[in-house]
Amino acid sequence: MFRTALLRSARSATCQAVRKSSPIVRPASTGLFTKSQIAPSAFQAVRCYSAGGGLDEATVTGRIADLLKNFDKITPTSHFANDLGLDSLDTVEVVMAIEEEFSIEIPDKEADAIHSGIEQICEIWSHARELTF
Amino acid sequence: MRYSGLQKEVLALYRKCLRESRKKPIDTRSHFESYARAEFQKSLALDKKDFAAIEYLMRKGQRQLEMYSSPGIKDIR
Questions:
Q1: Which residue of chain B has the CA closest to A87?
Q2: How many CB atoms lie within 10 A of CB B3?
Q3: Complex ipTM > 0.90
Q4: DSSP assignment of B22-76, as one string?
Q5: Distance (Å) from the alpha carbon of A127 to chain B's nearest alpha carbon
Q6: Which pLDDT value is given to residue A34?
């Protein structure tokens, strides 16, 4: 406890010293960088939590394939009604499951137009792009 | 396959039911989902031109949805 307090006070003292001296010694434009190199502890609390990029297509395809495995006999290319004999309620259920997986909400108009896994992947993909860029 | 306006409304109601059941406790969610499914399945054989019956069932369903979506209701059988 005491040691950390000591360290902290010492660190703040050096920080202040640097801050005081920096306008004289260094040009103003490099002030921020040099300060962060000397006393990195002051900047460690600030972190960026945003993800680097959006979802790429392979991830989306993989996750949908995993999800569709939970339903019987669905493959990504099969047509829900024609190949699988799903009725309209089943289709709604599949679409809803996918909405939940990706934490998105597909508007009713577009959801009614989804009839196969591939269409769904395209749909998610376009949404993912809208969301992340 | 293209849906008619009324069919779309029915599907929208079903979707709403599923959305509402997502808000229920995680261990009873499946009860709500299967209940909604069963209710819709009961009238699956209805002729799609039988507008009066479908509209009646839609109104009934909406009322039921409102009732069951109150947060006090935690389980359904």
A1: B44
A2: 14
A3: no
A4: HTS-TTTHHHHHHHHHHHHHHTTTS-TT-HHHHHHHHHHHHHHHHHHTSTT----
A5: 19
A6: 45
